[in-house]
């Protein structure tokens, strides 16, 4: 069995990555409500369906994922960035 790790209140663990490159990331629940993150959830639904078991897996490059989360956290961002421009420059 896997080792249990406590998760801070208000955070959700997700597995991020493609192929064998997976990273466990704790995401604050408020990030989940942002439209950029909704795009990531849509990617997960297309890849794995709506009935994933266990930890939510996001099929996204780890570096790109952290960039998206950073954009969500940034409240002073002036340039409008769309999620499609992050994946398809």
Automatic annotation (TrEMBL):
Cited Pfam families: Auxin_inducible
Per its UniProt record, what PANTHER family does this chain match? AUXIN-INDUCED PROTEIN-LIKE-RELATED (PTHR31374), OS03G0780350 PROTEIN (PTHR31374:SF193)
| Family as reported in the entry's similarity comment | Belongs to the ARG7 family.
State what protein this is by name: Small auxin up regulated protein
Source organism of this protein record: Urochloa decumbens
